[in-house]
Design goal:
Distance between the termini: 61 Å
Number of helices: 19
Number of strands: 8
Keywords: Endoplasmic reticulum, Glycosyltransferase, GPI-anchor biosynthesis, Membrane, Signal, Transferase, Transmembrane, Transmembrane helix
Shape: globular
Organism: Zygosaccharomyces rouxii
Strand order of the largest sheet: 2-5-1-6-8-7
Pfam families: Glyco_transf_22
EC number: 2.4.1.-
Protein name: Mannosyltransferase
Number of domains: 2
Order of helices and strands: HHHHHHHHHHHHHHHHHHEEEEEHEEE
Structural class: alpha/beta
Largest sheet: 6 strands, mixed
């Protein structure tokens, strides 16, 4: 009965309109909506033919069928359906993994079901969420293969494993880091004695890789073969490229991100009384070690990169005697708070406002101090989207076509009031309909512009938390769209 309660809570959180990170839209849904449904949007650099650094295969497999309902269902319901799919798949795959990885105890099942990571991050359309599912499936197959009796082969499972591995690599180039150490154990415990299975694995891996390369080449329309994971790998090897996305100390994953995944359970860990041999053959533990160590080599370290480690870590924890007395209550409280913050409130007003605004005539929408609006949800085939650029570390709007005064969405990101003022002035000189969408946490900063402009509130959404511009002297929650006119 308890698992049913946690599942219902997970479904409720999954259906909320929170917005955790722009990649959940722009590296999947935005790309498919523009290709399948003929609307205009913002295509990230990874999916441009010049860079071709991400594969189309995983996102078509994941979302193509849902986008067939585009037009029948609103973008908001498309998003909800996608999140239900992700949460449902995680629920099924995690239970499958628990059984196959021999960690099917009640504690492990409870922690996987009651984790805010499962409710929030896993239900959102991140490539990391799909990576988690594929890692769990692959490791479950590893466990099955290692238990194959001597003299027996496992050619079907090897073929399935090769397809899962190929899909994982083409989904995210980080996928192999979670399998490195477990793969060494698998080779010496099974494949070294089953050459037929190894040949099937290699052959199917080659065929599936060639198939994925062919599909990407056809979609990108390149004159040469497109190997998206290789292009992505080359990009990430250059630290100057990573610097554009933010550099972090190499200990960030270990000291900051992993504790956020595990939460207060880290305070109740019991030092395991296992032999070294036991550690060296524990598949989830080996995956955690290899994933954490290799991902820490790169200086761009975000929490979502470790999402696949969440279920593996939680199912492997051994907790001390104080867990049931104190830890359980703290764990539940922590996950409910984090689910409320990240799964309900975080940037939670952007999607509801978009759902209303897409039904109205669109002049110029200026988004300020928010995450980038997922423009696919405008469902507009004439949409023009533009944003800021940087020249010598100075933010500018050189690439904004101010002559476009209809169906124009401008993402000003976190620019200062001076650049906002310049942008408003350029558009209002042409007597167009201009709206500004901004979180209530920065409403006081619009006051400096009120001598020149009149801001009339059109609509507000109270369940919006802007963690990037917290000001205790202003409202913490809410987002408002304003109609702007000259005084």
């Amino acid at each position: 009965m308890k698992w049913f309660i946690w599942t219902l809570l997970g479904v409720f959180i999954a259906l909320q309109p929170s917005y955790i990170h722009p990649d959940e839209h722009f590296q999947s849904l935005e790309v498919l909506a523009t290709r399948i449904n003929g609307i205009k949007g913002s295509i990230p650099w990874e999916f441009t033919p010049v860079h071709s650094a991400r594969s189309f295969v995983p996102i078509y497999i994941s979302y193509w069928w849902i986008f067939q309902f585009y037009g029948t269902l609103s973008p908001l319901w498309i998003l909800r359906l996608i999140r239900l799919q992700h949460f449902g798949l995680y629920f099924l795959v995690s239970r499958y993994a628990l059984n196959h990885l021999k960690h099917s105890g009640g504690q492990a099942e409870f922690m996987l079901q009651s984790s805010y990571i499962a409710w929030c991050h896993q239900s959102h359309s991140f490539s990391n969420s799909l990576e988690t599912l594929l890692v769990l499936i692959a490791l479950s197959l590893y466990s099955d293969l290692m238990q194959t009796p001597y003299g027996k082969h496992a050619m079907v499972k090897s073929a399935v494993l090769s397809v899962v591995v190929t899909l994982g690599i083409f989904n995210r180039i980080t996928f192999p880091v979670f399998l490195l150490l477990p793969s060494i154990v698998l080779f010496f415990k099974f494949y070294i004695r089953s050459r037929r299975s190894l040949m099937v694995l290699g052959l199917t891996l080659s065929l599936s890789t060639l198939s994925f390369i062919y599909v990407d080449t056809m979609i990108y329309g390149g004159s040469h073969w497109i190997i998206a994971p290789w292009n992505n790998f080359k990009y990430n090897l250059d630290e100057s490229n990573l610097a554009q996305h933010g550099l972090h100390p190499r200990y960030t994953h270990i000291l900051v991100n992993l504790p956020q995944l595990v939460g207060p359970a880290i305070l109740f860990i019991q030092v395991p009384r296992k032999s070294l041999r036991g550690w060296f053959t524990d598949i989830p533990v080996l995956s955690v070690f290899s994933g954490l160590a290799l991902l820490s080599v790169f200086k761009h370290q975000e929490l979502r990169f470790l999402i696949p480690l969440a279920p593996l870590t939680l199912m492997s924890l051994k907790l001390n005697k104080y867990w049931k007395t104190y830890g359980l209550k703290v764990w539940i409280g922590f996950n409910i708070i984090m689910a409320t913050v990240m799964g309900v409130l975080h940037q939670g007003g952007i999607v509801p406002l978009l759902d209303v605004m897409r039904e109205e005539p669109l002049g110029v929408h200026i988004w300020w101090k928010t995450y980038s609006p997922p423009t696919w949800m405008y469902a507009n085939s004439e949409l023009i989207s533009s944003t800021t650029n940087f020249v010598d570390n100075v933010e500018k709007v050189d690439n904004v076509p101010f002559s476009s005064i209809h169906d124009h969405v401008v993402d000003l990101k976190g620019c200062d009031e001076k650049l906002l003022n310049h942008t408003l002035n350029q558009f209002l000189l042409q007597n167009t309909n201009v709206q500004v969408i901004a979180p209530d946490s920065v409403a006081h900063r619009l006051e400096s512009l009120q001598d020149s402009y009149q801001f009339q509130s059109l609509q507000s959404w109270p369940l919006h938390l802007d963690l990037d511009h917290i000001n205790l002297s202003s409202k913490l929650l809410g987002i408002t769209r304003y109609s702007v006119a000259r005084r």
